[in-house]
Each structure stands twice: as structure tokens, then as C-alpha cells.
Write a structure and sequence with these properties.
The structure holds 3 protein chains of 3 kinds. By secondary structure, chain B is an all-alpha fold. Chain B contains 16 helices and 2 strands. In chain B, strands 1-2 form a two-stranded antiparallel sheet. Chain C folds into 2 domains: 191 residues, P-loop containing nucleotide triphosphate hydrolases (Rossmann fold); 80 residues, no CATH class. Chain C has a 6-stranded mixed beta sheet with strand order 7-8-9-3-10-11, with helices on both faces. In chain C, strands 2-1-4-5-6 form a 5-stranded antiparallel beta sheet, sandwiched between helices. In chain C, strand 1 and strand 2 form a beta hairpin. Chain C is globular, with a radius of gyration of 20 Å. Chain C starts with a strand and ends in a 5-residue tail after the last helix. Classes of the chains: A mainly alpha, B mainly alpha, C alpha/beta. The complex binds adenosine-5'-triphosphate and magnesium ion.
């Protein structure tokens, strides 16, 4: 492979990684607070894809984007209220099963509503415009994704570290019970967490699908799982960790596909997970937690 | 006295069941759908029970069932595809010479060996899965609940990637999958017709799992489920017992996978995706986490409902000239997902909770309703 | 002088900035009742967790019945506080999982009761015997170890009789009243066949009468099962009544050691309990 091809693939990988990073943040935030793998997160991302298709059919693109993001966010909050909140004091396994149930429901519902046939994702002319940088060519979305990701993460970090809500989120993720005793409105914190997670998944979805060009009811499953792995890789509960994990997985995956190992590109992610959990279970930047007896 | 009555009832029910299956075997042409759902139901009963052994009895939330099933399914299929069909199956990439050689040996062996060979294949599939589980267990069983779930799910995806990868074309036939798999074999020189085979194999497996659950080791599993720290403080080696449960569960999942290959006659890696694990989880949850009889009951109910009774949800429905809205392809699965959510959120115990079926309870309930009716009259 | 059954040397347990146990050196004489007392958060439970293998000490060594069951001497720290004879790095670490330590003959109860809630009283006791089972999984599954199982069942029944819980044999353990749950937890620990019994606040939540009964009960099982007892307790009457030797812990440090009388009159102990600031 020539240098140019390698760079070209890296660029694609970085772009994919940016989208992964945005989804991974949703996992990491929710896990940090509820200790729950939100199996439905990938399907929220998939549903956002469909929302965009329908919104764009009848609205100009700026309105369509706003509608998509709002609906996705509301859906995220709604899922938490409906499927996770009633189980907050139930055993860990029940709430995980509930998350799987929601994922199952969203997939079947979208198969029913939109059929399993892939739907073309609409092209936003601005995003698809091709730019030439030296020997490399890239569409605008490829360049936009990583930049937008970094900006959003920056804003999110300020929100988490500087605002009152952010402080409540951090307190809750440190110690759920104590935070509750200290008068933090847990329900609000959880809702805000799901809102942020879903909003970022919505943005990630627009960036991701613009590059993939079609959506199916199962488009969310694998990216979802991969992004969870990204979150674990970076250290669950840690936002910059999730971003690093997202970029890393995006780049390696793209390179593996380029090298002709496309069947193994998914398997690689999970191998990475298992190795990481063995070598450093707390992830790259995670903190150690000892269970009190 | 009571124990005698219960044994009598159980024996009678099983005898009736056997008679019914013989009758079904003689009339299978007219009852194609019934045979099909019952066989599929019994296979899923085995996977559900083995998943329950892990999730419900040992408290290990594992989502790797589909992966272990695929190991069993592929092993069995590769071993039992007849030598004359090989070229047809592997028409794209050719078959690995080793596999062909093995099949020649089997084809030349005495009739008795050939008649038990499918069972040997099932056993080998199970052993391979058990071996892999033992090795992988070293790594993943140290993980806490939700990490274990995602790691086993990942494992199952890795297995799927290996089976469908072009690098193993000559063994697994890559993305083309395997077909021309012979159906269930007869047993005991034809005394037991092939229709009964899956029921008998699953029966033996479930009895084994039940015995295990009721043994001292099964109690140790439950202790781990209840409280890992206390179990360890009571001298139970966590890793050893988790690994046992994982290996046994994987073994039986793989046997069920092998049976599924015989049932479906053709398999591909896609069959064993995450959705399949979710389907099995649905059965376990509906049946009751921690109940073997619940899983079995639920496996039959869910399979029959899904494949047969609720089919009409997927067909357009007309009342006179008016088409009932909502009824079209995919509606059935929506109903199923909603059902699952209802069980998860409201009827958290499922059909059986964590109790097992018992005649005493059934008769007790029957008496109670009768008495209350009597009281009302 | 009786022999020393359990010994800790320089045991230190640090969680981030918190030093929960600081250079703990204790010796538990065989056949005696030793108590560990101290204000809330003094590090008593943490000391138990280190001894039973739940936590790995950041520093120090635990010896039980002639075996080193836990040891951790990181090189740099070792130089400062301990002049051992060990030379290579590998020899400085001995890690044992709690189950192995239990099988060596040390059993414990927990401060917040940790019974197997969904299982019956009888099953709770049987499980504690499983650690010593000889039959493998297959033999046990196919019931080829009838004699062993029978022995286990008889032992469990005997144990339940001896602690007066036999009438609740087939009830769910979580349905027992609180005091009985505590008792069952002790019975379960006894079922592992221990030489040393560690009790973490066995009288917590009991009224004076129950506490008195418990004191008798502890002395009784000590005799019948020829045990050594090491207990954490806040009920001073109980402690002073039955202990032969008392260690007092405050902020992880051992501030006093001796018989009931000696400890009661120790100014440092009085200060720790009354919370008087050091001048
Ligand atoms: N796993 C852990 N992680 C962090 N800190 C811990 C952990 N376990 C104990 N600690 C801290 O160590 C200190 C001692 O706690 P410990 O439970 O040993 O006290 P205790 O003497 O048993 O108190 P009590 O009488 O209230 O039971 C406390 O400050 C506690 O917060
Ligand atoms: Mg304590």
C-alpha cells in the first residue's frame, strides 16, 4: 500500500472513530451513573437514522436535523422512564434484561414500521461535497466528524466539570446512595444523562449514516456494541477515555477492512475487549473500585 | 403415599407422551406443523435450560449461547454431511482433504458405528464447545456481571466471524454455510423412529442438568448466585465452580446446536447472531429465571406461539371488506417484544418464578379453586 | 503460654489516601477468646477482611496455624519497617483467596448478615460443608457418593440441633427473625469446620437479654467445637465478660492491648471512646 492510501484509510478511520466516540459517550455516562449497559443505545442511534430520513422528506435540512435530535433525545429520556426507572431497586440482571428487551422491541418495531429492507439515507449536499487536500480526497463529513466530536466533547467536559448539574452527575456516579441522601435529585440527573447520551447518539447517527448511505433495523446493533467496547477500553465512566476508545476502534477497524480482513474487523473489537479486561479491567483511564464487605 | 402418587402421575404423563409421539411419527404427514414446532421447541428447551443453569442458578449473566450453539451446529454438520454430498455442499471452494478422508473412514465402518456416529458427532460438538468454554472461562469468568455479559456476547461474535471468514472456507464453507445435513437419526435399530430422537436426547440432557442442580455442586452454584462474597468465605472456590457451570452450560448449548443443525438441514453463521441469544433469553425470562420446568414450558409455548398460533398477526386480516389495521409482516414480533417487556416490568417472576413444577402444587391449586367455587355456590 | 494460632505482622491496608489499618500486629492465642474493639471506622472490619483474604494487604504478613496465608512486602516499604530475610521480589507476595483460607480452618461471619437468602436454613449449612467435599462434579451429580452426602446431611442436622435452629430447618433463611439469622450465620461458619472463628459484631442490633444469651452461646460453642474465637464487638459488657485478651484500634492504629481490666483503665482508650482531642 502506498503512503497516500494508508493516509486515506486513516482519514476514513478517524471519521468513523468520531462517530463511534459520540455514541460511546452515551454508554459511558449511563454506565457511570446507573451501572447499566444500555443495550438499547445502539438502537436509539439506529432510530435516529430513520427519524432523519422521514424528517428530511418534508422539511429543509436544518429543521430536519433539529427535529431528529429533539425526537431522539425525547426517546432516550422516555426509554429510561418507562423501562429502567421502575427497576432501579431490582437486581442488576433485571435491568440489564430490560435494556435488552427495549433493544429487541426497537428492532422489531422498526422492522414492522420500516421493513427490513435497507432504506437509502438522504444526502445532504453540503456534507457530501468532496474536498481535495494534496493527494487525499475527502467529503466534508469526513473532515467535519472528528472536529465536531472534539468540540462537542470539549463542551461536554465544561458542562460536567463547571456546572451545577455536572457536579450532581459526578457526585451521583461516585456514590449513588450518598448522592441521594445529600438531596441530589437523582431522577433529574438520570434524565439529563440520558438526554445528553441520546443527543450525542443522534448527532453521531447523522454523521455515521451520511457516510454509510443506508439504514436497516439492525444497523445499530454492532456499532452499539463496539461503542460500548470503546467505552470500556477508555475506562468506563470516563468521557475522554470513551473518545480515545472510539477513535482507536474506528481507525483499527478501517485498517483491517482495508487489509482484507473485513470478516474479522468486528471480531477484533471484541478480542480487544477481552484482552483489555484481562490486562487492565479498569480501562485506559479508569479508576479502581474495591467492593466493600 | 403422596410420593407414590406423584411418581405414578409422572410416569403416566411420560408414557402418554411417548405414545403420542409414536402416533405423531406414524401420522407425521398430516401433522407437519405440529411435528416441526414440537421438535424446535424441545431443542430450544435444552438451550434455555442450559442458559438458565448459568444465569438463573449460578448468577452469571452470560450472552454467549448462540456462539456455543454454532460450535455444536457446525461440528455436527461437518461430521455428518454424507460423503456423496460433499462436492455439492462445498461447490465453491472445495472441501478440506482431511474432512473427506475422515468421512471415507466413517462410510467404510460397520453399520453399528455408522448408526451411532451422529450421536458421536453431537458429543464431539459438545466437547469442543466445553473445551473452548474452559479455556475462555479462564479469561472471562473473572469479570463482574455486566462485563461478563458483553464479553460472552463478544465471544459469540468472534466465533461467528471465524465460521464465516473466507480463511476457513474449506471447513466451514465461509459465508455460503452448510446444507444437505441429514435429519435426526433413528435410535435402537429403528425401534425408536427419528421423530423421537431429539426428545430423547434432550430428555437425557435435561435430567443430567436437573441432577447437577440438585447435587452439592448445584447448591454451591446457588450460593454463588445469592452472594459471591459469602460463598467464597464459606470455602467455595468461585472460579472453579463458575467454570464448571460455564462448561456444562456450553456443552449442552452445543448439543442443542447440533440438534438444531439436524432440524434445519442447512445452517449459516448468520443464523447464530445476537438475535438468537436474545430469543433464548426471552424464553428464559418468560419461563422464570431459576426454574428448569419454567424454561421448558416457556420454550414450547414461545416456539409454538411464534411459529404457529400467532402467525396470523403477520397476515393481513379482513373482516368482511374491512382490513383490520396493524396486521402485516413483523407485527407478530412487535407483540412478542411487548410481551417480553410486560414480563420484565410487571410479571417479573415469569411463568414459574424460581420454583419448579410439582404435582402437589398443581393439585393444591386445583383443590383450592374447587373449594372456593363450592363456597360460592 | 499457649500457642499462637493467628498472627499478623505489620499489616497495613491503605485505600487511596485512607490508611484503614496501620501496622497491625496481633497474636491470637489458641483456645482463647480475643476481642478487637474501637470506635466506628477504626478499621476493625478491614482487619478481618485482610486476615480472611478478602483484601490483599498493602503491607504485612498474616500467619495462621503455621501457614503464611497472606503476605505483601513491596521492596521499598519493606526496608523502612521490616527487616525480613527474604531476598527476591517474588517471595514477598503470598496471595490466597478467601475460600482457601476457609478450608485451612478459619471461618467468619459478616457485620451485615450475608446469608444465602433464598435458600433454606438447612441448605445454608450444607453449602458451608461443600468446600470439603471429596467427590467430583460427575460423581456428585450421579449420586455415587451416597455415604458422603449422608454424612454431610447428618452433620448439618446435628449442627442445627446444637444451635437450636432445627425446627426452622426447611424455612427460607431470610424469613428467620434477626437474632436467629445471626445465629444461623455462626452455625454456617461452624459447618466449614474451623479452628478459628471470626465474628464481626455478632451482637449488633440485639437487646441486653439477647446479648447475654449470645455471650453464653459463644462460650458454649467455643468449648463444644474446641474453637479459638476472635470477635469485633461494640457491646462492651459482652466484650469485657468473655474476652481473655483485647485489642483496641483507633484510626487504624493499635492504641491498647491487654485484659479487660487493663484496657478499661487505659487513658488512650478512654480518650478514643470519649473523643477527647489530643492536647
Ligand atoms: N473498600 C474500601 N474502599 C475504601 N475505603 C474503605 C474500604 N473499606 C473500608 N474503607 C475505609 O476504611 C475505614 C475503616 O473501615 P472499617 O469498616 O474497617 O471500620 P470498622 O472499624 O469496621 O467500623 P464499624 O465499627 O463502623 O464497623 C473507613 O474509613 C472506611 O471508609
Ligand atoms: Mg465494621
Amino acid at each position: 500500500m502506498s503512503m497516500t492510501t494508508i493516509l486515506q484509510h486513516c482519514l476514513t478511520g478517524i471519521s468513523l472513530g468520531g462517530a463511534y466516540a459520540l455514541i460511546a459517550i452515551g454508554y459511558t455516562l449511563v454506565y457511570g451513573i446507573l451501572r447499566l449497559i444500555n443495550f438499547a443505545h445502539g438502537d436509539i442511534f439506529m432510530m435516529a437514522g430513520y427519524f432523519m430520513i422521514f424528517a428530511l422528506a418534508s422539511f429543509p435540512w436544518p429543521v430536519a436535523i433539529i427535529i431528529t435530535l429533539v425526537v431522539t433525545t425525547v426517546m432516550g429520556i422516555g426509554i429510561e422512564r418507562f423501562a429502567y426507572k421502575p427497576l432501579r431497586n431490582a437486581p442488576r440482571m433485571s435491568i440489564m434484561i430490560s435494556a435488552i428487551g427495549v433493544s429487541y422491541l426497537l428492532q422489531n418495531l422498526s422492522t414492522y414500521l420500516f421493513t427490513a429492507i435497507p432504506r437509502g439515507y438522504p444526502e445532504l449536499p453540503y456534507l457530501k461535497k468532496i474536498y481535495q487536500i494534496g493527494e487525499l480526497s475527502a467529503s466534508f463529513v469526513t473532515i467535519l466528524t472528528p472536529i465536531l466530536t472534539i468540540v462537542l466533547v470539549f463542551v461536554l467536559m465544561i458542562l460536567v466539570n463547571k456546572t451545577k448539574t455536572g457536579m450532581a452527575m459526578r457526585a451521583t456516579s461516585k456514590d449513588f446512595e450518598t448522592a441521594k441522601l445529600m438531596g441530589i435529585n437523582i431522577n433529574r440527573v438520570v434524565s439529563v444523562t440520558f438526554a445528553i447520551g441520546s443527543l450525542l447518539a443522534g448527532i453521531g447517527s447523522i454523521l455515521y449514516f451520511t457516510d454509510r448511505m443506508s439504514v436497516t433495523p439492525f444497523s445499530g446493533t454492532l456499532p452499539g456494541l463496539k461503542c460500548f467496547v470503546a467505552a470500556v477500553f477508555g475506562g468506563i465512566g470516563n468521557i475522554p477515555g470513551a473518545v480515545v476508545g472510539g477513535f482507536f476502534i474506528g481507525i483499527v477497524e478501517t485498517l483491517l477492512v482495508a487489509l482484507g480482513y473485513s470478516t474479522f474487523s468486528d471480531a477484533f473489537t471484541f478480542l480487544l475487549l477481552i484482552i483489555m479486561l484481562l490486562v487492565k479491567p479498569t480501562g485506559l483511564f479508569g479508576e479502581k473500585n474495591v467492593e466493600k464487605v | 403415599m403422596r410420593i407414590k402418587r406423584n411418581t405414578l402421575l409422572t410416569t403416566t404423563v411420560f408414557a402418554l407422551l411417548v405414545v403420542f409421539l409414536y402416533w405423531l411419527s406414524a401420522n407425521r404427514m398430516q401433522n407437519g406443523m405440529l411435528v416441526s414446532v414440537l421438535q424446535k421447541g424441545v431443542i430450544f428447551a435444552l438451550v434455555a435450560v442450559s442458559m438458565n443453569l448459568l444465569n438463573g442458578f449460578t448468577g452469571l449473566f452470560s450472552l454467549g449461547q448462540a456462539g456455543f450453539m454454532s460450535i455444536g451446529a457446525y461440528t455436527t454438520a461437518i461430521l455428518i454431511i454424507p460423503v456423496k454430498s460433499l462436492d455439492g455442499v462445498y461447490y465453491m471452494n472445495g472441501v478440506h482433504p482431511g474432512i473427506r478422508a475422515l468421512k471415507m473412514v466413517v462410510a467404510d465402518s460397520p453399520a453399528f458405528v455408522q448408526s451411532i456416529f451422529p450421536f458421536v458427532a453431537l458429543l464431539l460438538g459438545g466437547l469442543l464447545a466445553a473445551g473452548i468454554a474452559a479455556i475462555v472461562g479462564v479469561a472471562v469468568l473473572r469479570l463482574k456481571s455486566d462485563y461478563l455479559a458483553i464479553a460472552t456476547l463478544g465471544l459469540s461474535e468472534i466465533v461467528r466471524a471465524i465460521f464465516s471468514s473466507p480463511q476457513f472456507d474449506q471447513i466451514t464453507n465461509g459465508s455460503y454455510g452448510l446444507n444437505k445435513i441429514p435429519t435426526f437419526p433413528e435410535m435402537a435399530w429403528g425401534l425408536i423412529p427419528s421423530l423421537l430422537t431429539p426428545f430423547i436426547v434432550v430428555g437425557f440432557c435435561v435430567v443430567f442438568i436437573l441432577l447437577l442442580i440438585n447435587s452439592s455442586y448445584g447448591r454451591a452454584f446457588k450460593a454463588i448466585r445469592e452472594d459471591e462474597i459469602a460463598a467464597e468465605a464459606m470455602g467455595i472456590n468461585l472460579y472453579k465452580h463458575k467454570s464448571m457451570s460455564f462448561v456444562v452450560s456450553s456443552f449442552f448449548s452445543a448439543v442443542a446446536g447440533g440438534l438444531l443443525a439436524m432440524y434445519m438441514r442447512s445452517i449459516e453463521a448468520k443464523t447464530f447472531s445476537i438475535t438468537m441469544t436474545y430469543d433464548i433469553l426471552l424464553i428464559v425470562v418468560i419461563g422464570g429465571i431459576g426454574s428448569v420446568t419454567g424454561s421448558i414450558l416457556s420454550a414450547f409455548l414461545v416456539t409454538i406461539a411464534k411459529e404457529w398460533w400467532l402467525r396470523f398477526f403477520d397476515q393481513p386480516l379482513f373482516f368482511g371488506g374491512w382490513q383490520v389495521p396493524l396486521f402485516r409482516t413483523g407485527f407478530r414480533m412487535v407483540i412478542f417484544s411487548i410481551l417480553l417487556m410486560v414480563v420484565v416490568l410487571i410479571y417479573r417472576k415469569g411463568l414459574m418464578g424460581s420454583t419448579e413444577f410439582s404435582w402437589d402444587r398443581l393439585i393444591g391449586r386445583f383443590r383450592r379453586t374447587k373449594n372456593s367455587e363450592g363456597g360460592a355456590a | 503460654m499457649s500457642t499462637i494460632l493467628l498472627k499478623t505482622e505489620h499489616v497495613t491496608m491503605q485505600f487511596g489516601g485512607v490508611v484503614a489499618v496501620d501496622d497491625l500486629n496481633i497474636e491470637i492465642p489458641e483456645g482463647k477468646i480475643t476481642a478487637l474493639i474501637g470506635p466506628n471506622g477504626a478499621g476493625k472490619t478491614t482487619a478481618f477482611n485482610v486476615i480472611t483474604g478478602g483484601y490483599q494487604a498493602t503491607n504485612g504478613r498474616v500467619t495462621f496455624d503455621g501457614h503464611v496465608i497472606g503476605e505483601n512486602y513491596p521492596r521499598s516499604k519493606m526496608k523502612k519497617i521490616y527487616n525480613g530475610t527474604y531476598k527476591t521480589l517474588n517471595e514477598h507476595q503470598v496471595i490466597n483467596t478467601p475460600d482457601k483460607i476457609t478450608r485451612l480452618g478459619m471461618a467468619r461471619t459478616f457485620q451485615n448478615i450475608r446469608l444465602f437468602k433464598d435458600l433454606t436454613v438447612f441448605e445454608n449449612v450444607l453449602i458451608a460443608m461443600h468446600g470439603h467435599i471429596k467427590a467430583g462434579m460427575l460423581r456428585s451429580t450421579f449420586k455415587l457418593n451416597k455415604e458422603e452426602e449422608l454424612m454431610m446431611n447428618q452433620e448439618a442436622d446435628k449442627l442445627l440441633h446444637s444451635v437450636n435452629l432445627h425446627m426452622h430447618r426447611d424455612e427460607k433463611s431470610s424469613s428467620l427473625p434477626y437474632g436467629m439469622q445471626r445465629k444461623l450465620e455462626i452455625a454456617r461458619a461452624l459447618a466449614t469446620g474451623p479452628k478459628l472463628l471470626l465474628l464481626d459484631e455478632p451482637a449488633a442490633g440485639m437487646n441486653p437479654k439477647e446479648t447475654e444469651e449470645l455471650a453464653l452461646f459463644i462460650q458454649e460453642i467455643k468449648e463444644t467445637f474446641s474453637l479459638t474465637v476472635f470477635l469485633i464487638e461494640h457491646h462492651m459488657d459482652l466484650v469485657m465478660d468473655i474476652s481473655d485478651k483485647i485489642y483496641v484500634l483507633d484510626y487504624g492504629k493499635t492504641i491498647a492491648l491487654g485484659t479487660a481490666n487493663e484496657v478499661q483503665n487505659d487513658p488512650a482508650v478512654i480518650r478514643a471512646y470519649l473523643g477527647v482531642e489530643e492536647a
